[in-house]
Amino acid sequence: MDRTEIPLYFQFFNEIGIIGQLSRAMLEAQLPKGLLAPHFAILNHLIRVRDGQTPLTLAKAFQVPKTTMTHSLGILEKHGLVALKPHPKDGRSKQVWITEAGRTLRENTIEATGPAFAAFAEKFDPRTVGEIVPKLAEMRAFLDAARDAD
Amino acid sequence: MDRTEIPLYFQFFNEIGIIGQLSRAMLEAQLPKGLLAPHFAILNHLIRVRDGQTPLTLAKAFQVPKTTMTHSLGILEKHGLVALKPHPKDGRSKQVWITEAGRTLRENTIEATGPAFAAFAEKFDPRTVGEIVPKLAEMRAFLDAARDAD
DNA sequence: ACTAACTAGTTCAATATCGTATTATATAGG
DNA sequence: CCTATATAATACGATATTGAACTAGTTAGT
Predict the structure, then answer these.
(1) B83 pairs with which residues across the strands?
(2) Can you give the pLDDT at residue B150?
(3) Which of A26, A126, A144 comes nearest B8 by C-beta?
(4) Model pTM?
């Protein structure tokens, strides 16, 4: 790699980092006190992918240590947004199911982010974003794979 | 905004968030124990922009509360990477100066990230990234401004 | 000058993240 | 079977992040 190109890649990841931070703040502004972006992400994942998964599977999906997932699921359970049940096939494990309250919270939150998204969408139309997303997805997959190689 | 477009924007911010998380982990793998990505970002900022800034200015630049900046600067100072001096014009304030050790650490870290960047750059060439970066910068600026409006 | 309002930074308390060690259960080899 | 190893989850301790309260110093209005 040409050394003069390094700043470009640095800037790329820098912009990504800042946007991530700002968008996270935007999301958390819509969540009830005590809930943070990672908690919402778990609820979202349980619906988009499927619920009934084990805590460890979720920890891997989110690239966080399992202790972090234990903690986050504890918060969600305390709020009645998920239910943890013993795993039918493995006594060591558990299954995570989203509750009705969890579904409702997720829907309401998405609804509440509407105005902020709309302002963003007005400036950056779906075509523009739609062109970038596949590239980002490709990059995410690449970095993900590179990490697994460790 | 067409409601069917919401998932696109959700996915966009989701990909951004994951890439941010993964790239942060990549960077931290190159930092000495006890130093994290935000600390490095501060060193980087002191060189890219300028040093001699106040802690509050830095806090605003990074969109973090000033208490967080106090803490981070304390870590950097403890490691001898920055020096905090009384502000010559304002008795309440301070100036943050990067030390020689700080410069060296920053350079060595950038050097160390070389291989990881090279692998990424091999798959995603500068032209591709160069097309996306300006768009991201524009989005970052927009979100930044929207936040200030609060 | 004097006082009120404001500002920069720190201290403190609460919570999040995460590495290490521990417990309970499962699996594989003899 | 029985034992060694592996795995799922948790407990615990250390550090990061952040809001609220506090201290010290500055600025503005009179």
Answers:
(1) B97
(2) 46
(3) A126
(4) 0.88
